[in-house]
From TrEMBL:
<dbReference type="Pfam" id="PF17833">
    <property type="entry name" value="pre-PUA_NIP7"/>
</dbReference>
<dbReference type="InterPro" id="IPR040598">
    <property type="entry name" value="NIP7_N"/>
</dbReference>
<dbReference type="InterPro" id="IPR055359">
    <property type="entry name" value="Nip7_N_euk"/>
</dbReference>
<dbReference type="InterPro" id="IPR005155">
    <property type="entry name" value="UPF0113_PUA"/>
</dbReference>
<protein>
    <submittedName>
        <fullName>60S ribosome subunit biogenesis protein NIP7 homolog isoform X2</fullName>
    </submittedName>
</protein>
<feature type="domain" description="60S ribosome subunit biogenesis protein NIP7 pre-PUA">
    <location>
        <begin position="1"/>
        <end position="83"/>
    </location>
</feature>
Length: 133
């Protein structure tokens, strides 16, 4: 288990930032303690520093996993998020899309109808209104 390199950190944070935006810092500096990302067997784990210090007594070849697996690096050094990261990303996630129909209409609509127009963050227009062109 080792810390991520500069390049690995950049690639991983770019991927996570697509989903949580500027809230990325809130993943590391949490009110219940400091959390960090560690790499073990090409997988990135999200773990509290308290547990990380306790795990230092276990040799790397005997350690199976530690904390929550956020994702893994592929052989081409791309980062893939795992479903286990969803519980940690969901509270900070960006908005999903613009609804094309009301909730009542969505219940009765046929399966091929358009329900969401634009899958993006609607609040982005409000937050960054002065920088939009």
């Amino acid at each position: 288990m080792r810390p991520l390199t500069e390049e690995e950190t950049r690639v991983m944070f770019e991927k996570i930032a697509k989903y949580v935006g500027e809230n990325l810092q809130l993943l590391v500096d949490r009110p219940d303690g400091t959390y960090c990302f560690r790499l073990h067997n090409d997988r990135v784990y999200y773990v509290s520093e308290k547990i990380l210090k306790l795990a230092a007594n276990i040799s790397g070849d005997k350690l199976v996993s530690l904390g929550t697996c956020f994702g893994k690096f592929t052989k081409t050094h791309k980062f893939r998020l795992h479903i286990t990261a969803l519980d940690y990303l969901a509270p900070y996630a960006k908005g999903f899309g613009v609804a094309a129909k009301s909730t009542q209409d969505c219940r009765k609509v046929d399966p091929m109808a358009i329900v969401v127009f634009h899958q993006a963050d609607i609040g982005e227009y409000v937050r960054h209104e002065e920088t939009l062109t």
